[in-house]
């Protein structure tokens, strides 16, 4: 009897923690994503049936048609294509490179043309090499030491930075502006160390620009793998007279028409308030663009499906946007923002996934202090799913043009440690995407969209210029 009374007392006195409505909805989202998620299947098709989706390519158009068909199948209120003119740069036949330490003694190294580069002369380009650690070294060396040579930019990503995107930002200027700057000193071409923390044999492409460099003074630019960069650097220390040869056949063609792919669920209470979730549909051509950014596209598509399947009726209009041409022009993001402003659409929130399909850790938030604190206040709802990072920072390239005072922008932030192993390289392929990690990312995005929609953003004073 005493034991029974003790148990009864414990049952009565023990607090009963009922799940809140938000906890139930978020759990339903994660359960649906992890048991019936569609993102992985969509990505499988994008990656393995279509492949790399460089702007203006046949594959990019196939991706537009495929994703529109999939959005149509979800029973959204509206699905449409938004025309946008995009650049068309083609790589041509595969690049080839070697360095020569003495006549006839050569060592091949892996390279790839940087996106937007001009070709080498028909027979290739062969010249002496001068190694630098960054653009700032050019002025120190001067024209006398650079003219007639190939500039080798060999500043590595900083391995001490835990946020690998910070390491990337610290050296990507040599990839984008290296050729334009070297041309001012009479360089014949540039070779750039790949943006990769790992030592491997994959060259990583990426966009570059010539600025106001006259067309007849533009020089070819290529990336070399990190192993290749290490070998070339060591060779130059032992033999400063070594020469480098490379040949590439890339070409810039006329702009062509492509599309942003858009689908939406109309809001039940505030239909004129628009919330966007998206990624970029184009990719580089070396791999199949699974992490960059097929993952972000299929996660964004699944956000709307997850909310529908769990029975949630959004108050605001939820719109998925698959942007075209983020990689080498940002035309899709700029066009979407331009059309939105011309139509006087009111965007209150935008979320982008463009950091790979790895395990989600949280969000970076570009918003007022009040709105950042509001999102940070939901930390306990995300904690059971190991989502813990909620910090003020950037959001995403394609949603950036939407920014206005009072608007909340956010970026999904997965674990970054493996991202640059694959970024813009031949090994950005479907086999390197983990199904569960991809699905967790989609659920995490859908959960934030749900909370923002339910509670709204905190109004802040808009500054009129």
What form results from the Cα inertia axes?
elongated
- Per CATH, the architecture of the largest domain is 3-Layer(aba) Sandwich
Helicity, in percent? Answer: 25-40%
Give the integer mean of the pLDDT values: 95
- Provide the gyration radius in Å: 25 Å
Q: Report the end-to-end length measured between terminal Cα atoms.
A: 78 Å
CATH C-level class of the largest domain is Alpha Beta
* Total number of domains: 2
Record the strand order, biggest sheet. Answer: 1-10-12-11-13-16-14-15
Regions with pLDDT < 50 over 5+ consecutive residues?
Answer: 1-17
Number of strands: 16
Structural class: alpha/beta
What is the CATH topology descriptor of the largest domain? Aminopeptidase
Walk me through what this model shows.
- This protein is an alpha/beta fold.
- It folds into two domains: 21-89 and 254-455, Zn peptidases (Aminopeptidase, 3-Layer(aba) Sandwich), CATH 3.40.630.10; 93-249, Glucose Oxidase, domain 1, CATH 3.50.30.
- It contains 15 helices and 16 strands.
- The strands form two sheets. An eight-stranded mixed beta sheet has the order 1-10-12-11-13-16-14-15, with helices on both faces. An eight-stranded mixed beta sheet has the order 3-2-9-5-6-7-8-4.
- Helix 2 (21-36) packs antiparallel against helix 15 (435-455) and helix 3 (39-50) runs antiparallel to helix 10 (290-309).
- The radius of gyration is 25 Å and the shape is elongated.
- The N and C termini lie far apart (78 Å).
- Residues 1-17 have low confidence and may be disordered.
